[in-house]
């Protein structure tokens, strides 16, 4: 299995995507996000995940430039926000994101949430951006199985990625099975349950493996074949989150963590959101 920070999974169109990335949700634009991005890249991260809705694409762009790593080594993700969904408005939103990030080509562009009545038109715009070479891969975020089936049934392109809330209390087994069978790479947001790491099993395994609870969970993500993007602005924590490539959880321990599932969300349900 994956043994170094820069290791990648291969998306169904052949594009390589790192298993580990830095998430920048709720990271302030300007110095805070610039420093987080630089710290991550210096620690060996090659993937940064932002979104138009985070309001920090400009800072991410500055951080990328200041980090001094060549552009073709990096994998940058951003997302179209709900208010911008629809065909023409998605194309316009993409241009805005590209300009703020200061990048010609985006590695991965995602539909942020499945806005009813709009996400299929949004997907057509994503397909155009992909065919035009403006993005290297396209995907979705927060899509349930029925949303994915809806998109797949009416388009030429199967999403390459589905970024969802995924952690030991919400392991989304049915959705994982569907994505695996359609070669859609799953990616975990809030992998660390927004800091709710106090769990007896996770603590026991952390002691057993000589790792932190966060490292146990991030390793579990990767061994389950799920890309993970923990968010942090703390340089030491960013580094610690990347130190998950020097050990393996046993199959039994992966299964024990899988069994913690309670279908418990810390974020909104994609079938029931109003933003």
From TrEMBL:
Residues 20-261 form the NADP-dependent oxidoreductase domain. InterPro entries: AKR (IPR020471), AKR5G (IPR044500), Aldo/ket_reductase_CS (IPR018170), NAD(P)_OxRdtase_dom_sf (IPR036812), NADP_OxRdtase_dom (IPR023210). Substrate binds at residue 112. It comes from the Bacteria. The record marks 79 as: Lowers pKa of active site Tyr. Signal peptide: none annotated. One of its GO terms (molecular function) is oxidoreductase activity, acting on the CH-OH group of donors, NAD or NADP as acceptor. Gene3D superfamilies: NADP-dependent oxidoreductase domain. CDD domains: AKR_AKR5G1-3. The keyword NADP applies. The active site is at residue 54. Pfam families: Aldo_ket_red (PF00248). The keyword Oxidoreductase applies. Keywords: NADP, Oxidoreductase. SUPFAM superfamilies: NAD(P)-linked oxidoreductase (SSF51430). PANTHER family: 2,5-DIKETO-D-GLUCONIC ACID REDUCTASE, NADP-DEPENDENT OXIDOREDUCTASE DOMAIN-CONTAINING PROTEIN. Belongs to the aldo/keto reductase family. This is Aldo/keto reductase.
